[in-house]
Amino acid sequence: MRLVLDTNTVVSGLVWGGVPGQLIESAVASKVHLITSLPLLDELPSIVSGDSHLLAIGEYRGIPIITPATAVCRLTV
What is the torsional sign of CA 69, 16, 9, 65? Predict the structure, then answer.
């Protein structure tokens, strides 16, 4: 089977697992073949870089806007 996954689905599968992660694992195990395209690859940096325009705000209504990495660090402290 050949699959074309949306960029968000690929990133979600790599980061969070779940059903998208199962699709990635199936590709690694050669059960399916992942197919991509230049437009999907071009989209990847904007998906991975996150919402930098939101980070520039810093805070909204007293709620800090932080990166996922910062959130993980705060959880482990």
Answer: negative
